Amino acid sequence: MLIIHITFVLISFFSFIIRVILLTFQSRLLKNKFFKITPHIIDTLLLLSGITLVIQGQWLTGEYSWVITKLIIIFIYIGLGVMVMRSVGIKRWLAFIATLSCYGYIIAIAVSKQSFLGFL
Predict the structure, then answer these.
(1) Does one domain contain both 17 and 72?
(2) Residues 29, 19 contacting (CB under 8 angstroms)
(3) pLDDT, tens only, 36-68
(4) Which candidate, 1, 17, 81, 88, has a CA 20 to 30 Å from the CA of 43?
């Protein structure tokens, strides 16, 4: 299951990058139904594989603040991703950098199983 989850993490990331590139060059492909639906399917499968890993790994039986932190950052990541896709100019690129930062932080949490946030 871990390999499936990591595969969806990578597919989701590269899908996001491709959509940002297409958006930057104002490609008509973004209006294609495939490019509108596929990211939601990929991210849903990513989330389901993550939930499955948490359940299979019994990661909620002990110290689990890292799982809660990861979920919070995922929601921030989603919000910033929406901002990237809907904004223009410097606001888009600041949101893009913040989104990539969230992505890196999520991976760091997943690898270390530590939240790095003092309040959680």
Answers:
(1) no
(2) no
(3) 899 889 989 988 988 888 888 776 666 777 888
(4) 88
Alpha-carbon distance of 80 to 32, in angstroms, equals 22
Q: How far apart are CA 4 and CA 49, in angstroms?
A: 7
Q: Which two three-digit tokens encode residue 19?
A: 């959509």
> Are 94 and 52 members of one domain?
no
- 31 and 66, same domain (yes or no): no
Write down which residue in 37, 57, 77 finishes a domain.
57
Q: Is 114 left (phi over 0), alpha (psi -120 to 50) or beta?
A: beta
pTM for the structure as a whole:
0.82
37 and 67 share a domain?
A: no
Q: In angstroms, rounded to a whole number, what is the distance separating the alpha carbons of residues 81 and 87?
A: 10
Cβ atoms of 77 and 99 closer than 8 Å:
yes
Segments forming the whole domain that contains residue 92: 61-120
Residues 22-50 as b/e (b if ≥16 CB within 10 A, e otherwise) read: bbeeeeeeeeeeebeeebeebbebbeebb
